[in-house]
Design a protein that fits this description.
By secondary structure, the chain is of the alpha/beta class. The protein has helices spanning 10-19, 46-56, 79-87, 99-107, 155-172, 177-201, 218-223, 242-255, 269-277, 300-315; strands spanning 39-43, 60-64, 90-93, 112-115, 128-130, 209-212, 227-230, 259-262, 281-284. Strands 5-7-6-8-9 form a 5-stranded mixed sheet, with helices on both faces. The chain has a 4-stranded parallel sheet with strand order 2-1-3-4, sandwiched between helices. Helix 5 runs antiparallel to helix 6 (177-201). The model is unreliable at 1-32 and 133-144 (pLDDT under 50).
């Protein structure tokens, strides 16, 4: 992917490891606490943290490398986090989403390394994803060479990842395998129900096209027969070209688009500017990369249900 903007070299990681062998902070949301009497899991960011907590229950101690409100693409690894990673029983990450995490994991001696990207299928996505022909969009889809990491926004793929994580936990911590199987099955059942809720709720709408600030919702769009048109590509902080903005405004009029969606962890300036120029509304569609006080919900499921309501309103659900 081309979302690499901050990169920690192998030398820097090694140095951070050496520096991080001292006293560790007890902060539970920064992966700085490990080596407990439970199965210690370091998760790269919120969607993976949530899976680990839901599947592990009382048997696991989960910490996250990405703090609430922190944009995960930009994560840099601290010395304390690197040290805690080395002392954990397992690490759960998504390869190619966070370069600094990939570097740290590759050099870590943690026994169980779980790459969520290997537990489902990833596709190459660009600014436009879905079934819409977009014949009036003349902009080039330059980012189609990038694998889209946003698998958790598709409940079906997220359930596949959950099943893989559950099996990995069973293997790594066999004394609690039965509980992991039970909790994984319960989580997958909830995700299946969420999938049905999205499928039913988006089946009959006036338009099938929606605009977002960055291309995080491609898998969701494909799953439910929609088309996502992203202002930016997979990089949430890239700047759109003047041609892209012009084409988006033309497309919005042609396809009956009513709303430009922005997200909680990235500036809404571009979305509001385009919306004002095209006489469109704005609303939040949350990529669930972290839960904060601004989130429309307290966990993955409640935020996804808020996303569904926002899409239904914007698309004109009948």
């Amino acid at each position: 992917m081309n979302v690499r903007r901050r990169h920690i070299s192998g030398i820097a990681i090694a140095a951070a490891t050496a520096l991080g062998l001292g006293t560790l902070s007890a902060c539970s949301d920064s992966a700085s606490a490990a080596n407990t009497d439970k199965f210690d899991v370091v998760a790269a960011f919120y969607p993976l943290q949530y899976l680990a907590e839901q599947i592990g229950g009382d048997h696991v101690h989960v910490t996250s490398l990405t703090k609430p409100g922190q944009e995960p693409h930009d994560l840099e690894i601290s010395a304390q986090q690197t040290a805690a990673l080395g002392e954990s029983d397992a690490v759960l990450y998504l390869k190619n989403l966070q370069p600094a995490v990939d570097d740290a994991v590759s050099q870590s001696e943690v026994r169980t390394k779980i790459d969520a990207a290997s537990l489902t299928t990833l596709e190459k996505h660009g600014n436009e994803v879905g079934g819409h022909a977009a014949s009036h969009d003349t902009s080039k889809n330059d980012e189609l060479t990038d694998l889209d990491p946003h698998i958790w926004l598709d409940p079906v793929r997220y359930a596949q990842v959950a099943q893989g994580v559950g099996k990995a936990f069973e293997k790594a911590d066999p004394k609690n395998a039965a509980d992991y199987r039970t909790r994984t099955a319960a989580l997958v059942k909830k995700l299946d129900a969420l999938n049905t809720e999205f499928k039913t709720g988006l089946a009959d709408t006036k338009t099938k096209v929606f605009i977002t600030t960055h291309a995080a919702f491609g898998y969701l769009a494909e799953r439910y027969g929609l088309t996502e048109e992203a202002i930016n590509g997979l990089d949430p902080e890239s700047e759109p070209s003047a041609e892209r903005v012009k084409n988006l405004e033309k497309m919005a009029k042609a396809d009956g688009v009513t709303t430009v969606f922005y997200e909680t962890l990235v500036s809404d300036k571009t979305a509001k500017t385009i919306a004002a120029d095209a006489n469109l509304k704005t609303d939040v569609l949350d990529p669930i990369e972290g839960i904060t006080a601004k989130s429309r919900g307290k966990d993955y499921f409640s935020v996804q249900q808020a996303n569904l309501k926002a899409l239904q309103k914007a698309l004109g659900s009948k």
